[in-house]
Design brief:
By secondary structure, the protein is an alpha+beta fold. The chain contains one helix and four strands. It has a single domain, classed as Ubiquitin-like (UB roll) (Roll), CATH 3.10.20.
Length: about 100
């Protein structure tokens, strides 16, 4: 079966990884899978996934601060082209 491979980078680091996915999975499944992999691969407690390239976003000009990708039943191959899409992995700061 064909797989789509995307690049992921932890924000403000040089830590990068590529992950491959079944193109028919939903965005929700995609996010769940990335979170599980990133927590282990980068030794993080919790993460958000941000689509790269969002320079003028609601949080300012820094694309790493753009809103996180939201759960959706839409298939990833309908939204993200692996030739032109990449993602940030943003650690979630847990405060008590």
């Amino acid at each position: 079966m064909e797989q789509l491979t995307y690049s992921f980078k932890v924000v403000y680091t040089t830590n990068c990884k590529e992950y491959s996915f079944d193109p028919t999975i939903s965005v929700t499944e995609f996010l769940t899978d990335i979170r599980a992999k990133a927590i282990v691969d980068f030794n993080l407690l919790d993460v958000e996934i941000v689509e790269c390239g969002q320079y003028d976003n609601v949080n300012g000009h820094n694309p790493e601060l753009a809103p996180a990708v939201q759960d959706s039943s839409t298939r990833i191959d309908h939204l993200y082209n692996p030739q032109s899409s990449a993602f940030y992995i943003r650690p979630v700061i847990i405060t008590s």
